[in-house]
Every structure is written in C-alpha cells, then in structure tokens.
Design goal:
heterodimer, A: about 250 residues, alpha/beta, six-stranded mixed sheet, 12 strands, about 40% helix, about 30% strand, globular, B: about 425 residues, ten-stranded mixed sheet, 9 helices, binds adenosine-5'-triphosphate, binds magnesium ion, AAA+_ATPase (chain A), nucleotide-binding (chain A)
C-alpha cells in the first residue's frame, strides 16, 4: 500500500535535515503505529506524505499503491487515497463544515471519474456518520473547526476520514486532547474503517489509543530515522520504560 | 480663498459641458448646488480626500468610453418579487418599468416634483447633500444635485410588501448619467431597496434618504460587471429615533468606483449598518469613503468592508466615525479588510475616530493579508483543488460583509453568483 524508501527531508528555507533515511512499508489491511520522542520527525513525515509546502525531499521515495506520490499536488494525493488527520486541525473561518465536507467528497469523486453525490444522499451519510462520532448538527453547521474544542476538532478529523474513505489513513496524535470516552469514539471510528484494502499509520505517544486500535506493527522514530520495529509489545515497552533504553540499544 | 487655477479651469470645463435642467421648484436647490460646486471646485488629485483615488476621469467633461458587458446570466434580483424601475443610460424607461404603484408608498420622477407639488421631496432634494458638505467637501455630489437629469422621489408610508428594484442598464458606450433619488421613510414605515447595474459608462448617482422615527430601510446594490465603467456614488442618510438603515454593496469589476456614504444618526437608539464586498481583478480601483456622525444617545453604527484584489487591483477605504458631544452610549464598529491574492495588488486604508463624548464604545480595525496558507493546505489535503480552495477561502473572507444583508434569500443569491463569477474568472 505505502512504501517509503530511504526518505531524506530537509526544510526548504533552512539547512535543517529532519528525516534522515526513513524506510517503512504499510501493507493493505494493516495498522502500523509510529511512536517516538518529541521533535523526532513524525509530523514532518505525515506532512511530507500529504504534500505540504516548506519541505524538500533530498533523497528517497514514497509510493502509494506503486505510484510515486512525492511529485503530486496535495489534492492529487488525496484523490489517490491519502488522508492525514492533522495533529493540529486548521480553523477556517467563514467556510461551513458541511460545505467543506461536501466540496471535498465531490472533488475526490470527480477526480476519480465518479459521479457527484446528490445533496440528499450526502446529507444522509454525513448525519449517520456524525451521529456515531457524537458530532451534533450544530457542529456541522459551524465554520470548519472554529470554536471547536480540542476533542471536537479531532472527532471532526475522523468524520472527514469516514466520509472520504481513503486508502491510507495517517493519524497524527489524534488521541491527544481526547477524554477517555472520546478516545473510545475515535478508536471505534477508526476500527469501523479497518478493512482489507486500507492501511493505517497511527502516530501516538501513548499506549492507551493502541489498546483500542490494536496495531499490527509498531515503529520507533528517533532523530529522523526508524530505529526499531516490533509488535504491539514494543509500545508497552515504551509506555513502561520510555525511550532511553531503546535509543541506547540502537545507538 | 481663490481656488488653484488648474482646479478652477477643470471645474469650468466640466460645467461648460452641462446645462442646468429646467425644473421649476427645484431650480433654487439646483442653483444653490451649482454655487457650492463653483465655490468648492471639483475634486483634484491634490485634495486630501482624493489622495488615494484619481478623480480626473470622474471630473473631465467627456465620459471615457466604456464597452457594454454582456452577462450570460439572468440579471441580479430578477428572481425576486419586486417593483422594477428601469433606467437606460440614466434615462427612465417607462416601458421596461413596472407600474409605479404599490401599497405603502408613492413613487414620482423628480421632474414631476414641481407640477405635482410634492412638498416633502422639495424639502429634501439637495438638503442632506448640502449638510454632508461639512466637515468634508463632496463636490461631485453637489454637481449631481445641480445637474441630475432624472431620478425618483419615493415616500414610504407603510410596510411595503416587496422590494423596490432599480435596474440601471448600460447600453451606450459613451453614456454619462447623472441620477438623483430622494427617499423619505415615514415613521414606522419599512422598505427594501435593491439596485443593480452599471447605469452608464460614467455614472454619478446621489441618493438622499431621510428616515423618520422608527422607520426602516434596507438597501442592497450590485454595481454591474462592466469592466470599463466608472462610478461616483453618494449616499446621504439621516436617521431619526429608533430607526434602522442597513446597506450592502457588491462591486465586481469596474475600472473606477468611488462610493461615498454620509450617515447622520440624529435620533436616539438608531442603528446604521453599512457594508461592502468587492472583487477586483487587474485594472480596477475601488474606493469606499464613509463618514458616520453620531449625534444622539445610544445609537449603533457598523461598517464592514471587504475587498479581494488581484493582478494589480487597488482598494481604498476611508472611514470615519464622529461621535459628537452628548452622543453617549454610542456603539461604533468599523472593520476594513483586504485579501491580496498577489503582490501586485494594494489596499490603502484610512480609518478614523473622532470622539467628543466620554461614555462610548468604538472600535476599528483594518487588515491586509494574503490567503491563509495553512487553511489552503488543509482544504487541498482533503482533495479540493487549489483554485476551488482559493475560491472557498475568498468567499469565506467576504462572508462577514455578505452576512450584513438582512434577507437570507438575497444573501444566498449573492453568494451563489459570486461562486460562479470567481470560478469563471480563472
Ligand atoms: N517548518 C518548520 N520550521 C522549523 N522547524 C521545523 C519545521 N517543521 C519541523 N521542524 C522541526 O523539525 C523537527 C521535527 O518536528 P516534527 O513536528 O516532525 O516532530 P514530531 O515528531 O511530530 O514531534 P511531536 O511529538 O512533538 O509532535 C522539530 O525539531 C521541529 O522543530
Ligand atoms: Mg508531531
């Protein structure tokens, strides 16, 4: 599904190397988790994959289902099936959440040569999906993320994911800022989307989310590189002992 | 004080090209206005009030040529139930207009004010314009009062069931129109006025609005999309106790537009909102000049102006709130913002507050900025292409101004047209 090889990334405007040779392969149907110390490059990896400006790939490649995505525009990557649930969802004053969702869903359908969803089908689908995430109608009417609480923003990300049905879902710390019940809702939302044809890359600092979304593989990203890969037990080790041991061992 | 010679001769050249209309009882008002023009002189680039906007083409004797724009869509507001009043190149078109007969109001052409002896109109014509000449001179408005060739006098006495719609058709590429309307909203009466169209290659329009206690007037106008048209408009409004005046202007295209609004809150608890949304691309200069005077207790005023500019377009905002002595509990708000879609475009703003009362809440702000890159990336990451995402953000930027429109159907119509125009432009 997603194959990253020897990915090196620096900041466009500064001589700062952030990713220093990331190798990662996420198979369809699998959930991979990425953990790692603050500033190790996890969000950078997610932004580079989704096409944000400001980064320069100096070496390596990233392919989604065999297609090189690094040369594509962000919207083309989205149409190809890439989705990033932002660590910090962006507020867009003046753009209604509903308008935004409908525009996005239809833009992707159009890009894939599918017919647009009718207004009533769209409405039905949003309402049903919003309900399972406990997002009320009033929140759907408000401008995108404006005045949303931290947890509401994260649930809104999952709603977008559910509506867009991407092939590869990257969740960047979607658990941070969530209360226990909301975390369960979000995890249920993710689990509902687990499917043979879909891959997940879940970035998190905590074992708690992984209790709900059981990962198949866990990676540790440190200083711009994946330094260790293992099963779910690796996350438990981090939870119990922190990164010091793992980093020392790999050094 | 002697006027600078250049100004003097420019004024004379313009006046030579005009003739004072023969109109019995308005003659005195017209002559008084003419002498105001002669004393003030027409605007020149040297005038402080015209620092950001070149008045030359608005002042010169001949109107510059302007091609007629053929829109491939239904004219604005056509879908609404309304009473339509049509002017073609500044001349009333009775054929194209509806019957000027509607419960709750009377409509007469200004040329009939005298023969029909319409007192209220005689007492209003040129009066608010003359009041509006201090403390800042507005010579083009005085020129209008003196030389207006057409226009209507509307007296609103009840709650009118449908909007009055002015359709200003531009058909001759050399047309030069001067229109003057006077509107009196009687106590407790209520009306919505719509205006649509460029009117002429060069348009000088003046509207005097007098709202009695408890009266309400909503004005929504769209200035026409002819690229080469020029317009200088003046709106003078005087508000009585507990009255409401709300105005919204949409400007898309037009090589030169200067919209002046002079609003006086003279009765307690009155409310005046004035808003504008403009979208300019390339050879486009748009100037909103607003002067609001609070001269009563507990009045509210709100100015919301948004401009989207690209390819070297220029936006200007000069907005003033004057709170007179004794105008306590004034609530004054003013915001002017521009969205610059490239580095060639510019926004020039001069917000001013002048306050002589101590118990007031006035705020003003002006910003100028590029499109929010974070927001743009967020939208694109969801699959919306860059152009559509930019349009969405542009509409979002204009929303605060469009939201000032009271009628949701009219607001929705304006938004959907803007969507189409933005999409077609690229
Ligand atoms: N645009 C930028 N300008 C300057 N520094 C940047 C920029 N983007 C990333 N960095 C730096 O790159 C490093 C990696 O940042 P990144 O956000 O990817 O870390 P992270 O692993 O997601 O951390 P966290 O766990 O705190 O979210 C940090 O040192 C960060 O300061
Ligand atoms: Mg991060």
């Amino acid at each position: 599904m997603l194959e990253i090889k020897n990915l090196h990334v620096k900041l466009e405007d500064e001589e700062k190397q952030i990713l220093k040779g990331v190798d990662l392969k996420v198979e369809a149907g699998k959930v991979h988790a990425i953990m790692g110390p603050n500033g190790s490059g996890k969000s950078t990896l997610s932004y580079v994959l989704s096409g944000r400006d400001g980064y320069e790939v100096t070496e390596g490649s990233a392919e989604l289902e065999g297609e090189d995505i690094l040369e594509l525009e962000p919207e083309e990557r989205a149409a190809a099936g890439m989705f990033l649930a932002f660590q910090y969802p962006v507020e867009i004053p003046g753009v209604g959440n509903m308008t935004f969702l409908r525009t996005a869903v239809n833009a992707q359908r159009k890009a894939r040569g599918e017919e647009e969803l009718s207004a009533s089908d769209f409405l039905k689908e949003v309402r049903a999906k919003a309900k399972t995430l406990k997002i009320d109608a009033e929140m759907l009417k408000r401008p995108v993320n404006v005045g949303f609480s931290g947890g509401e923003k994260k649930r809104n990300e999952i709603l977008q994911m559910a509506m867009l049905e991407p092939k590869l879902c990257i969740l960047d710390e979607t658990d941070s800022g969530l209360d226990v019940d909301a975390m369960k809702l979000v995890a249920d939302g993710v689990n509902a989307l687990r499917d043979e044809g879909r891959g997940f890359l879940v970035i998190t600092h905590y074992q708690r989310l992984l209790d709900h979304i059981k990962p198949d593989v866990v990676h540790i990203l440190a200083n711009g590189r994946i330094v260790k890969t293992g099963g779910p037990e690796l996350a438990l080790e981090v939870e119990n002992n922190g990164y010091a041991g793992i980093l020392a061992e790999e050094a | 004080m002697a006027l600078a010679e250049v100004k003097q001769s420019a004024t004379q050249a313009r006046l030579m090209a005009l003739t004072l209309p023969e109109s019995g009882c308005l003659k005195a008002a017209r002559q008084a206005a003419l002498s105001r023009v002669q004393t003030m002189g027409l605007p020149s680039r040297r005038d402080e009030y015209w620092k950001y906007t070149k008045p030359d083409t608005l002042v010169q004797a001949e109107a510059p040529k302007a091609a007629v724009f053929h829109a491939e869509e239904d004219p604005m507001f056509n879908a609404f139930e309304r009473l339509n009043i049509v002017f073609v190149d500044g001349v009333f078109d009775a054929e194209a207009s509806d019957d000027l007969d509607l419960e709750g109001l009377t409509i007469d052409r200004i040329e009939d004010i005298c023969c029909k002896d319409i007192h209220w109109a005689k007492d209003l014509y040129g009066v608010l314009e003359a009041r509006g000449q201090t403390p800042v001179e507005r010579p083009l408005a005085a020129l209008n009062t003196a030389f207006a060739t057409d226009g209507v006098a509307i007296r609103v006495t009840g709650k009118v069931s449908k909007p009055i719609n002015f359709t200003y058709v531009h058909s001759d590429e050399n047309s030069d129109a001067i229109l003057h309307h006077v509107i009196r909203v009687e106590s407790g009466a209520e009306v919505t006025v719509l205006e649509n169209g460029p009117a002429a290659s060069r348009f000088n329009k003046c509207m005097e609005i007098d709202i009695a206690d408890g009266g309400k007037l909503h004005l929504v106008r769209a200035q026409g999309r002819d690229h080469e048209r020029r317009a200088a408009t003046h709106l003078f409004a005087r508000l009585g106790k507990e009255s409401v005046f709300k105005s919204f202007t949409l400007t898309v295209n037009g090589v030169l537009t200067r919209n002046e609004a002079v609003i006086e809150l003279t009765g307690d608890d009155a409310v005046a909102h004035i808003a504008g949304a403009c979208v300019g691309d390339g050879d486009f200069h748009h100037d909103d000049t607003v002067f609001i005077t609070h001269d009563a207790v507990n009045c509210e005023s709100r100015q919301v102006f948004k401009k989207v500019l690209r390819n070297g377009a220029t936006g200007v905002f000069q907005g003033k709130i004057l709170v007179k002595e004794g105008a306590q509990k004034t609530d004054g708000y003013q915001i002017s913002q521009s969205l610059l879609l490239d580095e060639d475009s510019q926004f020039l703003a001069k917000p001013e507050l002048e306050i002589y009362a101590d118990d007031v809440a006035c705020s003003h702000g002006s910003t100028s900025g590029a499109i929010d890159e974070e927001g743009l990336f967020y939208l694109r990451s969801r699959g919306v292409d860059k152009a559509d995402a930019t349009d969405l953000m542009t509409l979002a930027f204009l929303a605060e101004a469009v939201d000032e429109i009271e009628d949701p159907e009219i607001a929705a119509d304006i938004v959907s047209r803007l969507e189409g125009w933005l999409a077609r432009r690229r």
